[in-house]
Specification:
The chain has 119 residues and is mostly beta strands. The chain is 9% helix and 29% strand.
Length: 119
């Protein structure tokens, strides 16, 4: 994708559009950047998530438990293209299965590709 998604509002709008959801359906929970760690800039703080980058940062093991904060996780969204000002930017949307919406139960493998961000 040539366009860079900048803030959480743009990220939510992208996911909602891509998944055919009504605008305003999703709530941004939290974000993680490999350089700065968790942003704690969403509805849930980082204590409900765990992310470990592996394979030189091309993959990550992630787990979650937002249920204790009153939320269910619907999607894990990966952004890649850090440091690029003109793209391309790579985005992955992982849908969360019904049995893992409240608790991942075990760490889940996600592909990050190069240096990326997990949200």
């Amino acid at each position: 994708m040539a366009e860079k998604l900048g803030d959480n509002v743009q990220v939510l709008a992208f996911i909602e559009s891509d998944q055919g959801l009504t605008p305003g359906t999703l709530t941004y929970l939290s974000g993680f950047d490999q350089d700065t760690g968790f942003a704690n800039n969403g509805a849930v703080d980082s204590s409900h998530f765990d992310i470990s980058l592996i394979n030189g940062g091309t993959s990550a093991m992630t787990s979650w438990d937002p249920n204790t904060a009153g939320f269910a996780l619907s999607y894990v969204f990966i952004k890649d293209g850090r440091g690029s000002t003109s793209g391309p930017y790579l985005y992955h949307i992982y849908g969360v299965t019904p049995d893992g919406r409240f608790d991942s139960l075990i760490a889940q493998l996600v592909t990050v590709n190069n240096s990326g961000q997990v949200q």
